[in-house]
Design goal:
alpha/beta, Nucleotidyltransferase, domain 5, 3 domains
Length: 269
């Protein structure tokens, strides 16, 4: 019987293979040690199979994420924009939309709905998207205009501004769950689009990273509210700060919790 490699050597080898995400090497490792009777070796084989399955699952997810784009390119469209917004629910800060045109061939490993990603992952992907994109545009509607329009129409306006700001202009738009008003470009609304289509996912990441940066700036301008930690959402900390300090210029006064505290503070002697 051939002498078997020490388990420590096998672990080191598998770590190197996993680091490179080489499916051929993972499959070869699992096959080479399939008959090794040692429990430690079988644990390593199982780990190789799990990693192989995870890589294949992720590749299938990414393939599906780009499927609609491939269909549109095959139909003759050349500049497909993804459109998404962020910041509908917060009590403070702007509502922000992004429109992103990615090239037909693009590599964005780990691309996903921005809500499923950690901050570091979003920021890294946002940089990669900006490096590869044909065009990116941001639409932003501030709190006073949100109060004038209401949040639903303000979000649509942010999307419209984002789409009309693209240069070159798109010839097709894929939009997360909404129809962008006052644009002539053909468009398709997709429910949960940021988890279904690559272009919309890219827009969701760009919009989220951009708005977070704006909220950090507001945190410096209006200290005490914690905008940099909750991004304007109605957390317990934020609502408590509203009670203590009253609303500031970054707040949406048409939102009930803000309106309540504005009225309360206006009655103070």
């Amino acid at each position: 019987m051939a002498e078997r490699a020490p388990l420590a050597t096998l672990r080191t080898k598998l770590r190197e293979i996993v680091a490179g995400d080489d499916t051929n090497s993972l499959a070869a490792f699992a096959e080479a040690h399939r008959e090794d009777p040692r429990s430690g070796a079988q644990q390593l084989v199982e780990r190789a199979h799990r990693r192989l399955n995870a890589i294949e699952k992720e590749r299938a997810r990414m393939d599906a994420l780009f499927a609609l784009r491939r269909t549109l390119f095959a139909s003759g469209y050349e500049r497909v924009a993804g459109v998404d917004e962020v910041g509908v629910g917060p009590l403070a800060g702007p509502v922000v939309a992004a429109a992103v045109i990615l090239p037909e061939d693009t590599t964005l490993t780990g691309l996903d709905d921005s809500k499923k990603l950690k901050r570091e992952q979003r920021e890294k992907l946002a940089l990669a998207i900006r490096e590869q994109a044909v065009s990116i545009s941001i639409g932003c509607v501030p709190p006073p205009k949100i109060d004038d329009l209401n949040i639903y129409h303000a979000a649509l306006e942010a999307m419209r501004l984002a789409v009309t700001g693209l240069h070159p202009a798109p010839d097709y738009c894929l939009v997360d769950a909404r129809t962008v008003p006052q644009i002539s470009t053909p468009q398709r609304a997709i429910v949960h689009g940021d988890a279904v289509d690559a272009s919309i996912a890219a827009a969701s990441i760009v919009a989220k990273v951009h708005r977070d940066a704006m909220m950090h700036e507001l945190d410096q301008r209006y200290p005490g509210y914690g905008f940099g930690r909750h991004m304007g959402y109605g957390t317990e900390f934020h609502v408590d700060a509203l009670r203590r300090l009253g609303p500031c210029e970054a707040h949406r006064r048409s939102f009930a919790p803000v309106a309540e505290q504005a009225a309360r503070h206006s009655r103070r002697p």
